Amino acid sequence: MRTRYSYSLYLRFKDWLTGPFHSASTRYVRHLRSKGVKVGDGVVFRDAKSVTIDLTRPSLVEIGNNVDINVNFTIMTHDFVSSVFLNRYNELINSSGRVKLGNNIYIGRDVTILKGVSIGDNCIIGLGSVVTSDIPSDSVAVGTPAQVICSIDDYFSRRKSLCLEEAFEYARSIRQNFGREPQVEDFWEEFPHFVSGNKVDCYPTLPIKRQLGKAYNHYRKHHKAPFDSFEDFLAAAFSPKGPKALDK
Ligand SMILES: CC(C)(COP(=O)(O)OP(=O)(O)OC[C@H]1O[C@@H](n2cnc3c(N)ncnc32)[C@H](O)[C@@H]1OP(=O)(O)O)[C@@H](O)C(=O)NCCC(=O)NCCS
């Protein structure tokens, strides 16, 4: 039963864990580089076929290292408003500008970046944003036109304060919606709440190494989970006194 359940979870996340987006992304990065676009290491296109990167002037596009790009992403380094000028004034007016993405950026779904824009290092660009002017390093920016809503430090602190309650809510939703007990494999992103660095080997069915990437060794050495085990975590999530009752 347990094996069948693990296998069905594996099938559910197979594409996400092993490709095909990884290989499509690698091919797309190779294609961009072959056209002359500067693309750093660790750049991931979650759905390369939905991406539009303006290759009319490839030398104007630069993407740094570790940029994670979601579905329906567009970079435009030009427009052709001159079509109107041509009809109205008989003049051809060129229009183009650099787009530069720094290092360590997360781009949500459906984001467009227009010509002349730089995004600094360590930024998050929210879903649906149209970025029309520079975004400074260490910022979270959202909207149309995209505006900075907070610093990455503030956002990190806020996420840290909310994530345990979100993990509890997820556990409860599994029991409520599926009528079954949550399994350790369900918590492929939430495991830091119950897997300390020295207990990583006790959870072979979790994709811990893959999820943590470069942070894996640091996690193994330093991470102290607030709960000693998965069972303690679940007991807290379902505690009649409220989910925080058993939290340390
Ligand atoms: C940027 C992001 C991470 C912020 O999420 P969040 O922590 O829930 O943000 P908050 O709810 O605290 O929002 C703060 C403010 O920004 C606004 N906001 C948040 N995301 C926004 C967005 N994408 N577009 C416009 N406004 C947005 C909120 O309305 C809120 O405004 P208010 O202070 O006036 O009420 C999130 O919006 C986002 O875009 N996530 C990426 C989703 C995605 O692409 N997932 C793909 C996974 S494969």
Commentary on this structure:
There is one protein chain. This protein is α/β, with parallel strands linked by helices and 248 residues long. The chain has 2 domains: 4-145, Hexapeptide repeat proteins (UDP N-Acetylglucosamine Acyltransferase, domain 1, 3 Solenoid), CATH 2.160.10; 155-246, no CATH class. Helices cover 35% and strands 16% of the residues. The protein is built from 7 helices and 14 strands. It has helices spanning 2-18, 21-35, 82-89, 152-178, 208-212, 216-222, 230-237, and strands at 38-39, 44-45, 52-53, 61-63, 67-69, 74-75, 99-101, 105-107, 112-113, 117-119, 123-125, 130-131, 139-142, 147-151. The chain has a 6-stranded mixed sheet. A 4-stranded parallel sheet has the order 1-4-7-10, with helices on one face. Helix 4 (152-178) packs across helix 7. It is elongated, with a radius of gyration of 22 Å. The two termini are 33 Å apart. Coenzyme A binds at residues 70, 108-109, 124, 126-128, 140, 142-143, 149.
Q: What do we call the CATH topology of the largest domain?
A: UDP N-Acetylglucosamine Acyltransferase, domain 1
| DSSP, total strands | 14
Q: Would you identify the regions where 5 or more consecutive residues have pLDDT less than 50?
A: none
Total helices: the number is 7
What summary fits the major beta sheet?
A: 6 strands, mixed
What is the CATH class name of the largest domain? Mainly Beta
Strand order of the largest sheet: 2-5-8-11-13-14
What is the terminal separation in angstroms?
Answer: 33 Å
Q: Which percent range describes the beta-strand content?
A: 15-25%
